[in-house]
Specification:
The structure holds two protein chains of two kinds. Chain A contains twelve helices and 14 strands. Chain A is an alpha/beta fold. In chain A, helix 9 packs across helix 10. The longest helix of chain B is centred in the N-terminal third of the chain and has 26 residues. The chains are: A alpha/beta, B alpha/beta. Bound molecules: thiamine diphosphate (TPP). Thiamine diphosphate (TPP) sits at the interface of chains B and A. Chain A: It comes from Caldalkalibacillus thermarum (strain TA2.A1).
Chain lengths: 326, 360
């Protein structure tokens, strides 16, 4: 097995799928000759040609509409939105068009589209590049939303996304692109969309999280174990729509306590959804209210205070102590 | 079949030029009537901006600035166009258009704070008519039509001016903006800085149109193409369309042909991946500073001494601005929360209190 960064694993997944299925097309701004601004598509145009891997004019709404049209004519588009903060430019294509194609046509047409996009904080991008907008996607019926936290998952989940016949929003946290390496098998393998992963087992409290916050939560779990010996279970959602509530409920049946950690602002996001579902399915197993650790409800701040704004292990530790001491 | 049908064609677009690459006047009728002092001021601003650009790049490399998009190569377009404006005219800039807003009145230290991601960087002083730089490509174009419509409705003789790159002209907002401006006949001027690349994508991949200037035709507004490395040509065109707009004669679109010498931004772009050094050399032969310096020298209006003086003065002002930026109080999370609404809702009051309690 090769050791890869997450960006290499993503590149590898695209290569595997381009090789396997000639209807797969990869396109977006700067993805061709430049190989993507983060090099996610590096070398792909060279290997597969401009017919299959190509630069588009600078128009997200155009990229989304093009993907819909190509999807209707038998292709499997993998479109890139250069930074997820620009998703509003293409929101109509995603929410009003792709996500409704199957419904509108009574199943006659569909949108086998993967929307890849970097997002996430801690790397000091300019305004509107890092925003965690995944919560908006959850409110859109007809979309699946995937956020990997490591290279192995990124490859397996991206392959699943590309093979899925419905639109999948695949969000790549910028901070995870190159921050560490992990084992990634060669060739094809898939990880099912909609299935969470227990990244650390424990008996006393469950942390439900995803993306970069998996790593923040693991740090916090380690700290709590040292400080008071409490054993923390950490669940990486991997897919935030649909949410794997069964895995969460099973964990809470064991630990009876939970917190949800997300990088995004507090109001109406993934954490709110997870807690609502816990309420519906596991409330009698709880010994304490489920708390959220999130960013405050402001716009994503300019670079100078980004680090203070993002949830850190200390804030997670504080929340764990609160539910343990309830 | 329908061989006799003739598609509509745009007329041949001519590039407006005043100076040749040696700084000699080739279109005397277009040479602007500027005083000697004004001509020297144009040069001063271009030299100052080049020094500032070089300094910003090195400060960024040292981690003393944040986001920065280099401007070298584009000074004639940026400075020549802004020079044709009055203080009351309103600029809606994009991320690279920091020189225009600084020369329009934004204090330099605030430009540095903006780069560092400090909120005060975008807090425009009351008497300065600019918006903070736009990150969403194209958004500023349709907003410009709105600002111009506002001026028209209020009967104010002001012009709204905006900038976009060649890549940006592919966005829907670009077409919507120039179309609205034409339909409402508002005092708006749209400057396309065609520096040949949108990050790595050359303008030929952006559009099959022969020129970007001709996009004005579909919007029913006048379009011009100008040599964007020729500060006098840029000034002449800009002056004319701005004054027309001011006098109620409606909007205009200018395509300025220019080049960015440096990377797209300082955040890891490597231009050697998508363009050749020969191409860069070709464009540098038309460098706006060299060309205009030769023109001024021939008139006895510029010397090496003048140039060195501006360079020294620029360095000093940049250092002063940096110091002021360094001394500006850091921003805090409670301040950020306070900037969300005029009156904070209860949940934000609560969140603010939590941060204050934690000492942030
Ligand atoms: C809506 C949107 N999409 C994509 C980007 C990312 N991006 C920033 S600059 C740029 C290229 C812009 O090229 P151009 O319009 O030619 O202007 P230039 O940078 O050359 O001045 C891209 C794709 C963005 N900021 N906003």
């Amino acid at each position: 097995m090769a050791q890869m960064t997450m960006i290499q694993a993503i590149n590898d997944a695209l290569r595997v799928e381009l090789e396997r299925d000639e209807t797969v097309l990869v396109f977006g701004e700067d993805v061709g000759k430049n190989g993507g601004v983060f090099r996610a598509t590096d070398g792909l145009q060279k290997q597969f040609g401009k017919e299959r891997v190509f630069d588009t004019p600078l128009a997200e709404s155009g990229i989304g509409g093009l993907a819909i049209g190509l999807g209707l004519t038998g292709f499997r588009p993998v479109m890139e939105i250069q930074f997820f903060g620009f998703v509003f430019e293409v929101m109509d294509s995603i929410a009003s068009q792709m996500a409704r194609m199957r419904y509108r046509s009574g199943g006659r047409y569909h949108s086998p589209i993967t929307i890849r996009s970097p997002f996430g904080g801690g790397v000091k991008t300019p305004e509107l590049h890092a925003d965690s907008l995944e919560g908006l996607m959850l409110q859109t019926p007809g979309l699946k939303v995937v956020i990997p936290s490591n290279p192995y998952d990124a490859k397996g989940l991206l392959i699943s996304a590309i093979r899925d016949n419905d639109p999948v929003v695949f969000l790549e946290h910028m901070k995870l692109y190159r921050s560490f390496r992990g084992e990634v098998p060669e060739g094809e393998y898939t990880i099912p969309i909609g299935k969470a992963n227990i990244v650390k087992e424990g008996e006393d409290v469950t942390i439900i999280t995803y993306g970069a916050m998996v790593h923040t939560s693991l740090k916090a779990a380690e700290q709590i174990e040292k400080e008071r010996g409490a054993k923390v279970e950490v669940i990486d959602l991997r897919t935030i729509s649909p949410i794997d509530i069964d895995t969460i409920v099973q964990s809470i049946e064991k630990t009876n306590r939970a917190i949800v950690v997300q990088e995004a602002q507090k109001q109406s996001g993934v954490a709110a959804e997870v807690i609502a579902q816990i309420n519906e399915k596991a409330i009698l197993h709880l010994e304490a209210p489920v708390l959220r650790v999130t960013a405050p409800d402001t716009v994503y701040p300019f670079g100078m205070i980004e680090d203070k704004w993002l949830p850190d292990p200390n804030r997670v530790v504080k929340a764990i102590n609160q539910v343990l001491d309830f | 079949m329908s061989k006799q049908l003739k598609p509509i064609r745009a007329e041949k677009v001519e590039t407006i030029r005043v100076l040749d690459a040696d700084g000699k006047v080739i279109s005397p009728d277009l040479e602007p009537k500027l005083s000697d002092a004004e001509l020297r001021e144009l040069m001063r601003r271009m030299v100052f901006t080049r020094v500032w650009d070089q300094r910003a790049i090195s400060l960024n490399r040292q981690g003393r600035l944040g986001f920065y998009a280099p401007v070298a190569g584009q000074e004639a377009t940026m400075i020549g166009s802004q020079f044709a404006l009055k203080k009351e005219d309103f600029i809606l800039p994009s991320y690279r258009d920091i020189p225009q807003i600084v020369w329009h009145g934004l204090p330099l230290y605030q430009a540095f704070l903006y780069s560092r991601g400090h909120q005060h960087g975008g807090q425009i002083p009351e008497d300065v008519n600019v918006l903070m730089p736009q990150i969403i490509i194209g958004a500023q174009i349709i907003q410009t039509a709105g600002v111009a419509l506002g001026f028209k409705k209020k009967g104010e003789k002001r012009v709204a001016v905006t900038y976009i790159g060649d890549g940006g002209t592919s966005q829907g907002d670009f077409y919507e903006g120039i179309n609205f401006a034409g339909a409402y006949h508002v005092p708006a001027v749209f400057v396309i800085q065609n520096n040949q690349y949108a990050i790595s994508v050359p303008v030929e991949l952006q559009t099959a149109a022969e020129t970007l200037a001709q996009k004005a035709v579909a919007a029913g507004i006048p379009g011009y193409q100008v040599d964007g490395m020729d500060v006098l040509a840029v000034y002449t065109v800009m002056k004319e369309v701005v004054e027309k707009a001011r006098n109620g004669e409606g909007p205009a679109l200018i395509e300025s042909l220019t080049y960015r010498y440096g990377p797209h931004t300082m955040a890891g772009d490597d231009p050697t991946r998508y363009r050749s050094n020969e191409e860069l050399d070709e464009w540098e032969k038309n460098d706006p500073l060299i060309r205009f310096r030769k023109y001024l020298e021939a008139k006895g209006l510029w010397s090496e001494e003048d140039e060195n003086k501006v360079i020294e003065e620029a360095k000093e002002e940049i250092n002063k601005a940096l110091k002021q930026a360094d001394e500006t109080e850091k921003m805090t999370i409670p301040q950020l929360i306070d900037s969300m609404f005029e009156t904070l809702p209860a949940h934000l009051e609560e969140q603010k209190a939590e941060y204050e309690k934690a000492g942030e």
